[in-house]
Write a structure and sequence with these properties.
There is one protein chain. The protein is mainly α and 517 residues long. The protein is 42% helix and 6% strand. The strands form five sheets. Strands 1-5 form a two-stranded antiparallel ribbon. Strands 2-10 form a two-stranded antiparallel ribbon. A two-stranded antiparallel ribbon has the order 3-4. β7 (349-350) and β8 (353-354) form a beta hairpin. Residues 1-22 have low confidence and may be disordered.
Length: 517
């Protein structure tokens, strides 16, 4: 995190034998050069460093450095991949292989690394006699929140998974319903322990942005309730976030995807990356090394041809859906050019180059669609080939919450009220008032409108496939999805979830592979 000190995880001390005639209890001695669990958890600073380590698992390749955005994006009809790397190419085609755990296996491993670290905090911090009891409660609240967040990803993407609430080595596989129950319990506990803002606290964490807040915990609880069709519960909690009065849409949509204006009023929770923090080495996974930076590889992975690897591209369907919208001034939806780099007749500049000129000698690229969201394409960077993007990943935006709140209002019979929250998102980009152009929509018509709004507002942010799955479209609209995105042609039942990594099946007794694999 940008202003949270790095912490390197605890390692168990090795045991060594001393020679000579000594008592048996003298034979085992701790290595004085290595921290142990027993020697580490002593004071306020140790507790704070401990929870910082839990945040650290958000920054590695398995999570938001690269793998998790790929896993969330590529199955949607807003993205496609022609990556030469089979593991990546196959994600969006629902063909991830049990024999090759690349990408999805790294994510699974890192989610449980984060859960383990959270459990370390939850087991050890209560035993510390801290001078600042309010700080202690905030640290525990963050651990509950982060455990809930990592488990949210595991349950949502891998279905039936272990649900560890202790640091014991083995945990049996649970049903998805049991997993969701623990996610909700963790967020519920976190809500009572977290502040609305760290600007209003005293202690060593005062003023630090990027830490989990009460609003983030309520928002994720509401999202978990929505994902489990508890519309009434979700409606109550989405409204609690709105009523906090601390979140609002930023005027410029672009500000959600650049290094400028990070941790802004629209950000409910974001992962903190920085080119200035740490070293310059890439932190691919495992135990951190001293040279690791705190940067993201998302930009180079998604970047337009010639500026990065172009492993992810927008679909033609997404582009055409954007073109259905026109502002009150008769212009294209401004979110289009923030999301997609293309040969705009009005001109398009990326990394200081004119699109049409740069691709003039390559007709296929001249007419292609590339990802612009979360790219360093506006400033003085010439490309992404150093792998080191410092753009924070906004994993929960207020716009997302407003549209989910509109959805649950509609689902619970308050269709007219849903108009207001959809229109807040449309007003930001100067789109016409739905009450005027589409008055008196039925519940089904409003649902279709919200689905359209979410497709455009949240494109390539890891939400589309979650929506497709929870709405049941893999059962009811598969032919339609195949028309929009040919990658759906290889979907088969059960492949909406990733396989449990084979090492987990082999090493954790009783673990069963997900259906469809």
């Amino acid at each position: 995190m940008k202003n949270i000190k790095s912490f390197y995880p605890l390692f168990l001390a090795g045991l060594f034998l001393l020679g000579g005639c000594v008592k048996e209890e003298d034979l085992v001695q701790p290595d004085p050069n290595v921290e142990t669990t027993a020697s580490f958890w002593k004071n306020d600073q140790d507790a704070l460093l401990g929870v910082n380590a839990v945040y650290g698992s958000l920054l590695t390749d398995g999570t938001y450095m690269r793998s998790t955005p790929l896993l969330l994006d590529l199955k949607g009809d807003d993205s496609r991949s022609q990556s030469p790397w089979g593991a990546m190419y196959n994600v969006g085609r629902f063909n991830s292989s049990i024999a090759d755990p690349s990408i999805y296996g790294w994510a699974y491993e890192t989610y449980y690394q984060g859960i383990y670290r959270a459990n370390q905090v939850l087991e050890n911090v209560p035993m510390i006699e801290m001078e600042d009891e309010a700080l202690k409660e905030r640290i525990l609240g963050q651990a509950y929140f982060l455990r809930g967040l990592y488990l949210f990803h595991a349950v949502n993407m891998f279905k039936n998974v272990p649900v560890p609430t202790s640091t014991e080595l083995y945990h049996e596989q649970k049903s998805q319903e049991e997993g969701w129950a623990q996610v909700k319990e963790d967020f519920t506990t976190a809500i009572e322990m977290l502040p609305v803002s760290y600007n209003d606290v005293s202690g060593s964490d005062a003023g630090q942005v990027g830490r989990a807040t009460k609003g983030a915990a309520i928002a994720y609880l509401a999202k978990a309730q929505l994902f489990t069709q508890d519309y009434e519960g979700a409606k109550v909690n989405f409204k609690r976030v709105i009523d906090l009065g601390v979140y609002s849409l930023v005027p410029d949509y672009k500000d959600n995807f650049t290094t400028e204006n990070e941790n802004n009023s629209e950000s409910i929770f974001e992962v903190q990356f920085s080119r200035e923090a740490g070293g310059v080495d890439l932190g691919w996974g495992g135990a951190p090394a001293s040279g690791w930076g705190k940067t993201s590889a998302r930009a180079i992975t998604y970047a337009p041809r010639g500026f990065g690897w172009t492993d992810v591209q927008p679909t033609q369907t997404l582009f055409e859906e954007f073109m259905k919208e026109e502002t009150l001034n008769g212009e294209n939806d401004p979110r289009l050019n923030v999301t997609i780099a293309w040969n705009d007749p009005e001109g398009y500049t990326l990394y200081g180059k004119d699109f049409a000129t740069y691709y003039a000698n390559n007709p296929s690229d001249l007419n292609a669609l590339f990802v612009n969201k979360y790219q360093n394409s506006y400033g003085d960077r010439t490309d992404e080939f150093d792998w080191r993007s410092g753009i924070n990943e906004r994993i929960y935006r207020y716009a997302d919450l407003l549209l989910m709140y509109a959805e649950v209002l509609n689902e619970t019979g308050e269709t007219d009220a849903a108009y207001d929250y959809v229109q807040m998102v449309r007003d930001r980009v100067n789109l016409p008032d739905l009450r005027e152009i589409k008055p008196n929509m039925t519940q089904e018509e409003m649902f279709e409108q919200i689905a359209h709004e979410r497709f455009l507002e949240l494109a390539l942010e890891g939400h589309r496939f979650d929506d497709i799955r929870r709405w049941g479209w893999l059962d009811t609209r598969l032919d339609w999805l195949q028309e929009r995105d040919p990658e759906f042609e290889t979907y088969t039942d059960g492949r909406e979830y990733f396989p449990i990594p084979q090492t987990e099946v082999d090493n954790n007794p009783g673990t069963e592979q997900n259906p469809g694999y």
